[in-house]
Design a protein that fits this description.
Number of helices: 29
Shape: globular
Low-confidence stretches: 329-334, 438-494, 589-603, 612-620, 691-697
Mean pLDDT: 78
Strand content: 5-15%
Number of strands: 17
Largest sheet: 6 strands, mixed
């Protein structure tokens, strides 16, 4: 039994959900409640104890198992959920090596030091010496006492050793205080406080742990308005977003994040109730900061940086980072909707929120498209009689960004806008494309490709698609490994074979996942309900096997980071209990085939494999086949969901539910599922057309 299965065996899903959703009540074979993730009057959140799964048939239109519920409810990633649930279940995870334990203890020691420093700064703000700063925050900045407490704001007195003395008294050594960025050492060896006479703003990581400080000057004569902690073992400003630990749940629920420039912008926004606002740490958004948000938490990002020239240039640089980052994951397509918010009268978000907080939502809703913003910005100083070389230079700079939109219509519209502004023909404009950038406007969309003949070569392992055990399954003994150093696990006949095949191809070809998701979006067209529901992206919910769900989630997480290759990231981050499952999914074709025939007929086997590979190059497309199998997985998931919906429908019609709106919502969900099924069936039918004659051996 894997660690995840052992955790789920020890923690009853119904009991766990009831702790966080007290209204969960038994209803027939299921349990129901109003969904904890959105507001509703009639229950549409269902827990199925037999299958160990939950699903929201309302606005969320998503579900999963114990781990996915814990992740969504608490805003955890998978590793956090695994750690917390394992601790609750009393299940021991893979022990750390001595070096890892030493490193972990060191980081925890520094974080503890920083937490103590935050407490000392807070006490200083509440003491008599902080009265002037408290008055300044309330009267001039409009920051309430409750907000001061929530954000743990503090005060660094105008002293060279205030914090040094306080931390030394607790027992911390000077070297550790310096390593945490609280103090500095001069060339003469003197140690002194880094922050003096400043408003202290704790900077916290995703888990809410203090890792650094931002200090705002209180003396107008001070040269530096803000001083941040230096980079340390626990703080890297390029990898953090200020306020994310507070904003994560709101961002996930709204599927939108607003990025501002400063700490006070975030504090004002949260005080006004706009809790999906975070700040970038630095003048330009970094690749890692973007990956913290998209597509992991948000499908839409609004850049609301300052309106001055520096802020506008920072926005432009951030857009370039976003394009380059997302292009690597989505085949050059800007799959995340990025908008630019320009605040009237040149104000920054802090000023606007203090004066007109009730207008913030409307302002965010009017955020401009990337195309409108960059075209205006780049052509702002272009003279009416600009020369052709001047206009070409602008086109050359803007085309990569404007053509990164995922939708063909948006790409076409973007080019038209730029052509009109530069007074150039569209063909002349596209001729200026950098040679390494594909011309998306000349490519056929992927949807018409469904009319192409399907390959006539079945994929490996597809002889037993529905998972029936072979007649002699119990008599088959495990075969020795074909490749030295690794023994492929024999296929478990209880595992869903179709799911294993799809996950195997996704793991071996991570770039195919965004392409399959794009097909689903194309099938949905512009129907947002289909796109957000039954034709949404492929994910863990499309797999019934718990281990497959977790590995799929890890695959998605691997595409949201850039430090390691996806497969390397997965191998380094999964629990040891899943290594055998992953190894089985990654076993190559020759090994798997050898296992199935117990290493008999080695000469014939190698000849067969060689011929098969040659033939596959002629007639078989992994991408086309994976698309077909992924769509079949989605059909199976939709069938299961409709069964649950029909049960709720019957219950509502029997009179146990009197909310007509609830019944209508169920009916709409069933109709959406049927519409999605019809679209998928049609696509699969087009794929199944007889193949044209092809050259084979």
């Amino acid at each position: 039994m894997s660690v995840t299965d052992e955790i789920k065996a020890r923690i009853d899903l119904v009991s766990y959900v009831q702790r966080h959703v007290p209204g969960l009540k038994k209803a027939g074979r299921n349990h129901k409640a109003c969904c904890p993730f959105h507001d509703e009057r009639t229950p549409s959140f269902v827990v199925n104890p037999a299958r160990g799964s939950w699903y929201c048939f309302g606005a969320c239109a998503e579900g999963g198992d114990l781990f996915s519920f814990a992740q969504k409810f608490h805003g955890w990633d998978f590793r956090e959920a695994l750690r917390e649930l394992a601790a609750e279940a009393g299940v021991e995870l893979r022990p750390q090596t001595p070096a890892q334990r030493q490193r972990s203890d060191r980081l925890e020691h520094l974080r503890s030091l920083l937490a103590s420093a935050a407490e000392q700064y807070q006490r200083a703000l509440q003491a008599a010496g902080g009265a002037a700063l408290r008055d300044y925050l309330q009267r001039q900045r409009g920051i309430s006492g409750e907000t001061v407490k929530d954000f743990q704001l503090g005060y660094a007195p105008d002293s060279w050793d205030f914090m040094l003395r306080a931390l030394r008294a607790i027992g911390y050594a000077d070297d550790d205080i310096i390593a945490a960025g609280i103090a500095a050492r001069s060339e003469s060896g003197r140690v002194y406080d880094r922050f003096r006479n400043r408003l202290m703003i704790p900077i916290q990581d995703e888990r809410g742990r203090v890792v650094a400080f931002g200090g705002r000057a209180l003396d107008a004569a001070d040269n530096a308005k803000y001083i941040n902690s230096p980079q340390s073992e626990v703080f890297d400003k390029s990898r953090l977003l200020f306020g994310l630990h507070r904003a994560r749940r709101a961002i996930r629920e709204q599927e939108q994040a607003v990025i501002v420039e400063g700490y006070m912008d975030v504090i004002q926004a949260h005080q006004a109730g706009y809790t999906n606002v975070v700040a970038q740490m630095g003048t330009t958004m970094t690749e890692h900061q973007l990956r913290l948000l998209a597509p992991r938490l948000a499908e839409r990002i609004v850049l609301a940086l300052d309106a001055d020239p520096a802020g506008q240039n920072a926005t432009r640089r951030s857009l370039d980072v976003a394009r380059a980052t997302l292009a690597r994951d989505f085949g050059g397509k800007q799959a995340v909707d990025i908008r630019v918010l320009q605040i009237p009268a040149g104000k920054d978000p802090d000023d606007f929120l203090r004066e007109r907080a009730d207008e913030w939502d409307a302002l965010v809703a009017k955020a401009r498209s990337i195309a409108d913003f960059v075209i205006d910005l780049e052509t702002m100083e272009l003279p009416p009689d600009a020369s052709l070389p001047q206009r070409r230079a602008i086109a050359h700079n803007l085309l990569p960004l404007l053509l990164a939109a995922e939708d063909d219509l948006f790409r076409q519209e973007n080019v038209q806008k730029l052509a009109r502004r530069l007074r150039m023909g569209e063909r002349d404009l596209l001729a200026l494309l950098p040679p390494q950038l594909p011309n998306y406007l000349t490519k056929k969309s992927l949807t018409p490709q469904l009319d192409q003949p399907a390959p006539d070569l079945p994929p490996e392992y597809w002889d037993n698609e529905y998972g029936q055990a072979p007649p002699d399954a119990e008599e088959m003994a495990p075969a020795p490994a074909v490749m030295a150093g690794r023994k492929p696990r024999q296929r478990d006949s209880a595992k869903p074979i179709a799911e294993a095949y799809c996950l195997r191809l996704f793991l071996q070809n991570p770039s195919l996942l965004p392409r399959v998701n794009r097909i689903l979006r194309e099938l949905a067209g512009r129907d947002e309900a289909l796109m957000a529901g039954p034709l949404g992206d492929i994910g863990g919910e499309d797999f019934s096997e718990s281990a497959f769900r977790i590995l799929m989630a890890q695959l998605q997480a691997s595409l949201n980071q850039h430090e390691k290759e996806p497969l390397e990231f997965i191998k380094s981050s999964i629990d040891s209990s899943l290594e055998a499952e992953l190894g089985f999914l990654l076993v190559d074709d020759l090994e798997a085939l050898a296992v199935s025939v117990q290493n008999r007929f080695e000469v014939d086997l190698n000849d067969i494999v060689k011929r098969r590979h040659y033939r596959a190059r002629l007639v078989f497309s992994i991408e086309d086949d994976l698309l077909q199998r992924a769509l079949q997985l989605r059909l199976a998931r939709l069938d299961n969901e409709r069964m649950e919906l029909q049960y709720l429908q019957e219950e509502a019609q029997d009179g146990t539910e009197t909310d007509e709106e609830h019944l209508q919502r169920i009916n709409r969900s069933i109709m959406l599922s049927l519409q999605a099924k019809a679209k998928i069936d049609r696509a699969l039918g087009l794929m199944a057309k007889p193949a044209q004659p092809t050259m084979t051996l």
